[in-house]
Fold each of these.
Amino acid sequence: MTSTPYLTVQALTKYIKKKFDVDPYLRNVYVKGELSNVKHHIGSGHIYFTLKDEKTQIKAVMFASYARQLKFKPESGMKVLIKGDVNVYEGGGQYQLYAQVMEPDGLGSLYLAFEQLKEKLQKEGLFSDQYKKPIPAFPRKVAVVTATTGAAIRDICTTIKQNYKLTDIIIFPALVQGEHAAKSIVKAIEQANRTPEIDTLIVARGGGSIEDLWAFNEEIVARAIFNSVVPVISGVGHETDTTISDLVADVRAATPTAAAKRAVPSSEELAKYLLTRKAQLFQLAQARIKHEKAKLERLQRSYPLAYPDRLYRPFIEKISRMDERLHQSILDYLKHQKLLMTQMDHRLQLLSPLQQLRYEKTRVENNEKSLKKAVLQQLNRRNDEFHSVIRTLEALNPLAIMTRGYSLTYHNGKVIKSIQEVKEHDEVEFHLQDGKATATVISITVEDKMKL
C-alpha cells in the first residue's frame, strides 16, 4: 500500500497564491461596485472594505500609502471605480482586492471631497456669521498671503495704493498650487498673525482649474483662516470660483482685485464723502447759528433781561437773611461751646489729683473715726460682758459661801460629804474663809433623815 501525499493548509494556500501572482488578468484589475463595511484603521491608516454588486461581493483593502492620495473619504454606500490587483491573503486563506486607485463612479473625487469637507465644517459652525470678524474701515497695515509672482500680487498692491495710500502692505509669500501649497499657506497665515499691528489679512491667488485652486479647499487652510485673530478677506480665483477658504473667511471677495478694494477705502469715495459731510456740516452750522441768534433775540426782549436789577433783587434779600442766620448761628454755637467748656472745666476740677487727694484724705479720716468708734464700742461691749461673767462666776463660786460662816471639811485631801466617810479619832481639816484648822473626831452622831 502506497502512502498518499497530503498537503498542509499553508502549502495549499501558498500554491494558490502563486497561481494568483502569475495570472496577468489579476494584475491592474479595473472593477466597479458599491462600498460596504468601510473601516478606516486609525493606527495604520489602512482602509478595509467590501466591494459588492447586486449578486456578489469581494473583500478589499487599500493600504495607507495609497489611501493618503485620496481626495475624498470613502464611505459605505458610495459607488466607486477601483484600480488594483487581486491576490490571496495567506493568513485568512481568502482572496481579496488590493486597491491602488479609487474614484467616485459618476462624480469627481475633488468635487466629492469638497462637498464632504464643506458639510463637515458647516456642522462644526466654521461658516457661521457669529464668528465673522468685521473688517477695519481704515487699516494701517494690510498683510497679503499669496505667491510673489503672478498677476494676483500685482493687482492687489496696485489697487491698494491707488485707493488708499496711507496703508502699508506686508507680503507673506506662500505656494498657492501643488502638493505643499496648503502647508505653505498655513505657515504664512500664522506668521501674519504673529506680526504686530496688522489690521487686515488678504488670502488670494488668481484663477485656475479646481486642481489649481485645491490648496484653498484643504482642511488645514480652512482652520488656519478660522483661527486667525486678524480679520481675513479671501480672494481666490475668478468670480465663479468658490472655495472652502471663501466660506470660512470673514469676507469673501470675487477676485484678488476685489479683495484689495474691500480691504481699504476708496480715496475717491472718501473725498466725495468728506465733501458731502463738509456741506452737511456747513448747513448744520448755519442752521444752528440762525436758531441760536433767534433765541438770543427772544431772550434779549424777555422781561428778565429788560429789567436785570429785578433778577438779582431776591437774591440780595436772600443773602441778607442768610447772613443774619449765619451770624446768629455763630453766636449760638459759641455760647454752646462756652457752656461745654465750663462743664468740662468743672469735671476736670473734680477729677484733678489735688481734689482727689482731698477727697481721699477726708474719706480716710472719716473711716478712722468710724473705726475708733467701732473699736471703743467693741471694747465697752466686751468689758460689760467680762464683768457680767465675773459676777456670774462669783455667784457660782462655792468658796463665796464661806463669808457667811460656812466651812469645808477635808479628810485625807477629800471633801467630807457624809458622816459615813469618817470615824472617831480621825484627823480632819476645816477650811474657813481666812484659813484652815485641824481637829480630831471625838464622837459621831447620825441624824435621823425622817425627822428632818
Amino acid sequence: MSVLLLRLAGPLQAWGASARFVRRTTESAPTKSGVIGMLAAAQGLDRGDDAGLARLAALRFGVRIDQPGTRVRDFQTAHHAVTGKSMPLSERFYLADAVFVAALEGEGPFLDDLHTALRTPAHPLFLGRRSCPPALPVELGTRDSSLSPALRDEPWQAAGWYQRLRGQEPTVSLVVSREPVPGEQHGDVLRDQPLSFAAAHRRHALRSVVSTTVEVPNPRAVASRKPAARPVPHHDPFDAVEEETL
C-alpha cells in the first residue's frame, strides 16, 4: 500500500460540502470531493466519466491541518449573460492563508500515475473554486506507507512566518481528519463522497470521518532559542585602590 501526499496552500481556499441557494460556505479543511475533483482535472477526466471517478473515490482519504487560516466572507454580484438582468447577491466564504496536507491511500502504480498527472495536469488545478489557484506545487510525492503514519511523519508544511509564531515549541499538535479503517469507530460524517460530477446529476454520499491529533517537530524551535547567557566577568572597583596602597 502507498500514499500520495498533496500540499494545499494558497491565498484563498474554499471547500464546500453543502450550499444553500446564494450562500456558499466552506469547511475548515479540504473535502474529499474537492480533492478528488482536483485529481480528476489533472487526469483530464470528463465530468460524465463515472467509472473513472469511482476509481478515484475508492482511495482512502485523510487531511492534516498544518495552518488553519482565517475564514473570510465576500459578497458577489452578477448579471445574466443574455438578458443583462441582475442576479441575486451571492454570499461566499473562503479560508485565507491556510495550508493543508492531504493524503490518499491506494495501490502504488495508480498513485504514481496520479503523481505524474499532478506534475503535468490536463486542466488547471484549483483549491475548491476556480478563483482559488494553489500558490505552491501541489504534489509532495508518494510514500511507501499507510495513511495515518504518512500524515504523522510528513514535515510541517506551514508558512515560515506561521512557524516563527510558534518558534518556542519543539513540537506542534496538528489536527488530522481521516477515513477510519474497517472496524474502527468513527466520530462524524460528511456528505462529500463523490458519486458523479455530471452537471445534470451531481451526487455525493455520506462518508465516515475520524478526528485525531499528531505531534510534528517544529523546525523553527532550535533556531528560535535564546543563546546561553555569557558569564559576567569579575570586577571589583577596589582592586585599583589596593594596588595603589601597596
Amino acid sequence: MKILILGGTRFLGRFLTESALERGHEVTLFNRGKENPELFPDVEKLVGDRGGDLSALEEGEWEAVIDTCGFVPRVVRESAKLLAERTGHYTFISSASVYDELERAGIDEEHPVGQMSLSDAEEMTKGMTNPPANEYYGELKFLCEQEVKQQFPGRSLIVRPGLIVGPYDFTGRFSYWVNRVAKGGTVLAPGRKDKRIQLIDVRDLAEWIIRMVEQQNSGIFNAAGPESVLTMEAFLGECKRALKSDAEFVWVDEAFLLENEVGYWLELPLWIPDSEQMEGFLSLDIDKALKTGLAFRPLSETIRDTCEWELEHQALERKAGLAHEKEQEVLEKWRTRKIDS
C-alpha cells in the first residue's frame, strides 16, 4: 500500500512510519524537513509547509494519508482538499480533548464535544498553523475532524487518543513519573490512590492505526489503555516494580496540594483533582477500538523502555514535572501538618 504521512519523524509519526515500513508499505513523508531529517533515509520525502507551501503535494497518488499534525481547521481543509481526488482514505489524529461534559467516566465516541463556530476559529487562528492556546485545543481539533469528513465522506478514520506515552515523548508527562520513581526515596503521590488514569504506548497506537489503515476502516475511535482499569496507585506500584526502585510513596490529599499551589496535569502529570470534575478525561470507553484489534504491551515494558530512552536524553529540557525542591518542600509541610494535627 502507498501511504502518505503528514509529519512522520516525531513521536507518533515516527512510529507510524516505522510500523508501516515493517509491514511492507511504501511510505512518503511530507514535512518541513526540520525534525529528525536523518531518519528513514530510504523513504521518499516531500518538503513543504502546511501553513503555506503545499506545492510538493500537488502531484502523486496514494491509497491512504495519515495526518499526524493537523491543529488548525483552515490548514487541514487545504491539505485534505488538495489530496481528496488522489488519495483513497484519510486518517486524522485527533484527541480526547474534543470531549465536553467530562464529569462522568466511560465517555464513548457519541459523547458531546466542545463547540466553536468555524468563523470564530478562522479569526482566532488567522496566520497560524498551530493552535494559539490549550484552552481551545479540543474545539479546534473537532473542527479539523469535520473538515476531513467533508473532503473524504465515508472514507475517513478519526482517532481520538488519550495520553500517548513511551520512548521519544518530549512532553515529559509520563516520563516524569518514570524518572522520579527510578530515583527512589520519598515520592509525593497525588490525591486518591484509586483515581483512575489512562495512557497508551505510542508503539501500540501506531501499530493499530496502520492495521486500521490497511483495512480502510472509517469512523471515529477512542484510543487509550490499558484494557482493564488502571489506578494511580497501581501505576506507581508498577513503576516501582519494573524499575526495581526503593521509592516510598507519600499520598498527599488534593486540597493540600491546591492550597500549596501544586499544579495539576503539567506540574504533577496524570493528576486532575476531583474538584475539576473531569473524571471522564482519563476513563474513555475504548470498546469500539478493542473490537477492531487494539492491543497493549505490558505496562512494565513501556516503563522500562521509557526509562532507557530518558537515560540517553538527560540533557533535554522537560516540559512537565514537579521540581525536586518544591516536592520536598510540600512533603515537609505535609509531615508537619500531620504531626500538628
